[in-house]
Specification:
- The complex is a heterodimer of chains A (202) and B (275).
- Chain A is an all-alpha fold.
- Chain A contains 10 helices and no strands.
- Chain A folds into 2 domains: 99 residues, Rna Polymerase Sigma Factor, Chain: A (Orthogonal Bundle), CATH 1.10.1740; 82 residues, Winged helix-like DNA-binding domain superfamily/Winged helix DNA-binding domain (Arc Repressor Mutant, subunit A, Orthogonal Bundle), CATH 1.10.10.
- In chain A, helix 8 crosses helix 9.
- Chain B is mainly alpha-helical.
- Chain B folds into 3 domains: 57 residues; 64 residues; 103 residues, no CATH class.
- In chain B, helix 8 runs antiparallel to helix 11, helix 9 runs parallel beside helix 12 and helix 11 packs antiparallel against helix 12.
- Chain B is elongated.
- The chains are: A mainly alpha (202), B mainly alpha (275).
- Chains A and B meet through helix 2, helix 3, helix 6, helix 9 and helix 10 of A and helix 4 and helix 5 of B.
């Protein structure tokens, strides 16, 4: 197993094409955490759903490894597949939302009321952020999650989403602006704390 | 313009994360004012971005269940062991732990090559015999043809070559000429005979005189027949008509083209009536 850790992603994919189980195991270890968290962020923080989607993705890699072009970057390819899976799920959910609009609307009203009550607590910033992320457009959300939660580079995001780097930067900027408006009651307090801690450390 | 070269409007992230609004240079400040607007907005953006990054770093990441990995590995092993048809064939032909000459694939290949050689040699042998036969047959044909060609004189050869081209045309012309001659002869004969009979024997009885053509004679005879004064000379007319009929038959037997069938029928009817 040791020798596989030195292999590149594409070498491992070649191994999977040759039906090498160890190569698959190594690739899974490298990407399962990233992908399950990506799905978790993208799919409404549903852990079960995130795991199912991650499993489906790896099952696809097992069944159809030839779909991957060995000249491509595996990381961007696998994230583009994951992103497409999320898009499909959004479509399914939007159909469900349309059919049960009243129920969803009721839940939303309840959430905002609850958020107003919890607005003074900095610890709930992340929860609020999650909610706000879920409110974002799919394109903005995917770029933002990839950049700040999966720590993909601008170039990698551009390749994954098949858009230019400029478009990625633009999306990130406008997403941040949008989040700033909705999180301004929370962020400054947390950010101030962070800045104070940083200044103390320096 | 200078600002746009040093700071792209899209490269805000690094600036927000590294510098507060107060520490911005004049160049950066102009860019921020252009893209973001105010110091307050810049600071809000900065706080949000820092908070998001901090949350993302500190957030408890979920870990996938180990059962998922095991299930996927089982799937992978099943996939690896489930060989496709080609893999099975390949495995049968070229087993891994056997010597090269013992591999069925290699043995089949050798047999195939040998078979190909044998067949090829056999075909070559057969082909060479066929060539010989072909040469012999050609020789025989030549030996037969050459003496015949030599026997014919050169002048005759020229005639033989020329004849097939000219002959068919000549025969057609000859036939046409012959038919025309016959037609003329018959017509002349009819006219002569009719004139002689009419002049010598029926001069005063019937008005069929100076008949120059068969149709004219027929028409005249028909009119005379219905005329009572001239009907008495019917027996004489028969002679004339017989002669005309004779000439007509001759003509018909020779050519059958100068008169229409309608005319012939008319004449026959006339003759029957006359009889």
């Amino acid at each position: 197993m040791g020798k596989y850790s030195s292999y590149t992603d594409n070498d491992l994919m070649q191994g999977i094409l040759d039906k090498d189980t160890h190569a698959f195991s190594e690739l899974y270890d490298r990407y399962n955490g990233l992908l399950v968290n990506y799905f978790y962020k993208m799919l409404w923080q549903d852990k079960e759903k995130a795991q199912d989607f991650m499993q489906d993705l790896f099952a696809k890699i097992i069944e159809k490894p030839h779909l991957f072009d060995l000249k491509r970057n595996f990381k961007t390819w696998v994230f583009s597949v994951a992103n497409n899976m999320c898009k499909n799920e959004y479509r399914k959910q939007s159909i469900r939302h349309n059919t049960s609009y009243d129920i969803e609307e009721g839940i939303q009203i309840k959430d905002t009321a609850m958020d107003a009550m919890d607005s003074l607590q900095d610890s709930q910033f992340s929860e609020k952020l999650k909610l706000e992320l879920d409110q974002l457009d799919e394109k903005q959300k995917s770029a933002f999650v990839m950049r700040y939660f999966q720590e993909l580079s601008i170039k990698e995001i551009a390749e994954t989403l098949n858009i230019s780097e400029g478009t990625v930067k633009s999306r990130l900027f406008y997403t941040l602006k949008k989040l700033t408006v909705s999180l301004k009651d929370f962020a400054p307090q947390l950010a101030k704390m962070i800045l104070i801690l940083l200044s103390i450390a320096q | 313009m200078k600002n746009k070269h040093t700071h792209s409007p899209l490269d805000f992230e690094q600036l927000l994360l590294s510098k507060s609004y107060d520490s911005l240079t004049s160049e950066e400040l102009s860019f921020v004012n252009q893209e973001i607007g105010s110091a307050k907005e810049y600071e809000e953006l900065r706080m949000t971005l820092i908070s998001v990054k901090k949350i993302a770093q500190e957030e408890n990441r979920i870990v996938a269940d180990l059962a998922i990995k095991q299930a996927l590995l089982n799937q992978m092993e099943t996939k690896a062991t489930t060989l496709s048809l080609w893999d099975k064939i390949g495995g049968f032909l070229f087993p891994i732990n056997t010597k090269m000459y013992k591999k069925p694939g290699f043995q089949f290949a050798v047999m195939g090559v040998l078979l190909l050689l044998v067949v090829n040699i056999g075909l070559n042998e057969f082909g060479s015999r066929n060539n010989e036969l072909a040469v012999n047959s050609n020789k025989k044909v030549k030996s037969i043809e050459i003496p015949e060609q030599k026997a014919i004189p050169e002048k005759e050869k020229v005639e033989l070559i020329a004849e097939p081209l000219v002959q068919p045309q000549e025969t057609v012309v000859e036939k046409e000429v012959f038919v025309e001659k016959l037609e003329e002869d018959v017509q002349e004969e009819v006219v002569i005979l009719a004139d002689e009979v009419m002049v010598d024997e029926l001069k005063d009885k019937i008005s069929v005189q100076n008949v120059t053509s068969v149709s004219e004679a027929q028409s005249r005879m028909q009119t005379d027949f219905y005329d009572d004064s001239k009907r008495s000379s019917a027996s004489d007319m028969i002679v004339t008509n017989d002669m005309v009929l004779k000439s007509k038959k001759q003509k018909k037997s020779i050519q059958m083209t100068s008169q229409s069938l309608a005319d012939q029928e008319d004449v026959i009817d006339l003759l029957f009536v006359a009889l």
